[in-house]
Amino acid sequence: MRIAELKSHLSEYLRAVRDGQTITVLDRETPVAHIVLVRDQATLKIRKRAPGTPRPNRVPLPEPLKIGIDVVDLLLEERESHR
Questions:
Q1: Which of 43, 48, 57, 75 is 20 to 30 Å from 12 by CA-CA measure?
Q2: Mean pLDDT, rounded, for 63-82
Q3: For residue 2, what is the DSSP state?
């Protein structure tokens, strides 16, 4: 199903997904996504830290690198190359 049709009939397609169907979304005939029913909610499990490991706020950080590059300029250049 194409994106425009999904947008105009979203509620109907979500009902179909609740009934167990998988919906494939197309962008100009190219499959870009599947809409599937969420079976299990992922749960976050928190474990105790291993004996002898430092607390997260006590982990020593490495010294900053001394390089002649402005990281912000590098990031902006990277973003521009993807436009």
A1: 43
A2: 88
A3: B
Question: Residue 82 is encoded by which pair of tokens?
Answer: 């993807």
Element (H, E) at 9: none
Query: Residue with structure tokens 């179909």?
Result: 16
User: Do 6 and 27 form a contact (C-beta atoms < 8 A)?
Assistant: no
Cα–Cα dist 21/13, whole Å: 9
Residue that has been written with the tokens 């194409």 in this structure: 2
Q: Could you give phi then psi for residue 51, rounded to 5 degrees?
A: -60, 135
pLDDT score for 65: 83
Q: Which residues, in sequence order, are CB contacts of 20 under 8 Å at separation 6+?
A: 37
